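User: My instructor asked us to take a sequence, write out its structure as tokens, and then describe one feature of it. I'm not sure where to start. Here is the sequence I was given:
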Amino acid sequence: MIPRLRMNQHRLVVLAVTLCLMISCLMISGCTPTLETGYAASRGSSINGINSFLTLLRQSGHKVTVLPGLMTGMEWEYQTVIVFQSEFDELSEKSRSDLKKLISIGLIRTFVMIVRDSDAALDYWRQMQDRSDLSPSDIADVRQSYETFRTDFLSQAKTEFTPGLGKWYGLKRIDRAADAPVKTIEQDSDEGLLTVQARWPLNRRLEPGDSAVVVWRSGDDPLFTVEETTMARVMVLGSATPLLNGGLVDPGNRRLAVEFLSWIPEGDRVAVAVSSRWFEEQESNAKSPEIWNFVKVHPNGFVFGQGIFALLVFCWWKFPIFGRPRRIVSHETARFGRHVDAFGKLLRKSRDVTFAKQRIRDWNRVQKSSETKKTGY
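Assistant: Let's start with the prediction itself. The structure tokens for your sequence are:
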């Protein structure tokens, strides 16, 4: 009785320690969230994600398909294609040629290129610096994060090139040190000049193509251009700020997003490519990152890890390889002992030698028959 009691106490201690560790991990994972910054992520809570824009697009009545990149044959299924450029540099000559071949078929009515020249995380840390309720240590951390993101962003978004020679747009480096993040966006409409105050920090200046018309502008900065070709309407957005999750927090950007959606024809099936790379359809299906993307979203990774840890602890508790050894009692031996005890009592009562010998012969015969059945001989 005492060994079993000690064994149960040992199990309770192990369970208590396990629960304490799991609760501690859960509290740590819930109190220290990280800022997700994945660009053009269609799921999760990335500040640079586009799932809010996709919701607006679907609410406007369009059937939307999110693609990992550009694909051959997509022109047969979709009438509008929106591409979020994945690189800060200009498109390669081959990519431009392939895109023009895709548009020249005439089945795509609207093609939209979203230039990568913004980062909502950078603006987030810039706004955090203006808060007055932060402690000195928090302010130091915020400034360090801002400088880290700013240095990384400016080191990538520095390429400049001119339009022309088959290019839909160009980009020019501009000194934005004195620029305010809130801009006045102007748009010519049927009702006259439309102005919107929106938080849209700019980096490089968009330079439209020769036959493109500037639809949105802020001072000397073109922001949104439209070019009517013989096959399709080609639109270029200077940066993705008004379409990103972080940008849509601003009311002015939400209004711009609604105005942007008005340029997409009603009833079109829309393909949103979250990268400007070309993918084969089989490659995209074979390398679907859905599970990995789910685990990367906070706090799914911590919950998944805690579940695996709990499973390992349960297996260790159920089938221990460390700690006190278990006392395993053989039930076959116990039953044989009861048989011998009963046989002895029977002999003591009968005192018949012939009967005892006959019982022993019967027992040996049963044992031999059972061994024969087991061995098969």
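For the description part of your assignment, you could build on this observation: Residues 1-7, 26-32, 281-288 have pLDDT under 50 and may be disordered. Try explaining in your own words what that tells you about the chain.
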